[in-house]
Amino acid sequence: MESQVISKQRVTDHGEVFTGKREVDAMLDLVKPETERIDSRFLEPACGNGNFLTAILERKLCVVESRYGDSQLEYERNAVLAVSSIYGIDKLEENVTECRQRLFEIFDQKYTARFKQTAKKECRESVKYIFERNIIHGDALSLKTVDGKKPIVFSEWSPVNGSMIKRRDFAFHGLLDHAAMSELPLFSDLGEDVFIPKPQKDFPLTHFLKVADVKHT
């Protein structure tokens, strides 16, 4: 059985105890329809090395394969959408690195097994970059990066017109500040959005295979 503790010192210093697979599966089964929605977003504010996020990704990719496995383009589009819906924060850098790696390996193994010789380097690079953006080395309590100097910023990835993706970056604290304001409704009586968070940065439409190319812009 996989250990849920790396060391007693890490438990003392960081309260780090990993959730076992049986518990992860049982908890995710409570929201099973959401875990099987390709575009349903999940955030784990203390993600550790990714036990919850890897299980969610596996469920989503199973749905992608069952629906779109016969078309490489449709598989790639929807696999990237599934990847882009997963977010995590952790205070320990080694956990962040391992979580990103585990998530990428799950995608890469399934993608390569499905398409073998035709799998694209560009698709792998897009997925790897999205995980770099979505799995953050930070403190979910302070809402800042671990050094305390910058706010945590998440990227929203929205599909547009099939193969294009719209990226917008939002400060985490801004999203939470709004969520905490229960007196301000999310929707009007007419069903229209009342609150629209303002992105910190708005990126031009980009092909889903090219999102890593704009990382320095």
Distance, first to last CA: 45 Å
**Whole-number radius of gyration?**
18 Å
Strand order of the largest sheet: 1-2-3-4
Number of helices: 8
Number of domains: 1
Strand % is: 15-25%
Q: Give the helices and strands as they follow along the chain.
A: HHHEHHEHHEEEEHEE
Give the class from helix and strand content and strand pairing: alpha/beta
Give the integer mean of the pLDDT values: 85
Which parts are unreliable, with pLDDT below 50 for 5 consecutive residues or more?
1-7, 9-17, 180-188
The percentage helix is 40-55%
Please tally the β strands and state the result.
Answer: 8
* Overall shape: globular
Task: Please summarize the sheet with the most strands.
Answer: 4 strands, mixed
Describe this structure in words.
- The chain is an alpha/beta fold.
- It has one domain (8-214).
- The chain has eight helices and eight strands; from the N terminus they run H-H-H-E-H-H-E-H-H-E-E-E-E-H-E-E.
- The strands form two sheets. The chain has a four-stranded mixed sheet. Strands 5, 6, 7 and 8 form a four-stranded antiparallel sheet that branches.
- The chain is globular, with a radius of gyration of 18 Å.
Quick recap:
By secondary structure, the chain is α/β, with parallel strands linked by helices.
Which descriptors apply to this entry?
4-stranded antiparallel beta sheet; disordered N terminus; globular; alpha/beta; 16% strand; 8 strands; 217 residues
Topology of helices and strands:
Blueprint: H1 8-14, H2 21-29, H3 32-35, E1 42-44, H4 51-68, H5 72-84, E2 86-90, H6 93-115, H7 121-134, E3 135-139, E4 144-145, E5 153-160, E6 164-171, H8 172-179, E7 201-202, E8 206-207
Parallel strand pairs: 1-2, 2-3
Antiparallel strand pairs: 3-4, 5-6, 6-7, 6-8
Helix pairs in contact: 2-4, 4-5, 4-6, 5-7, 6-7
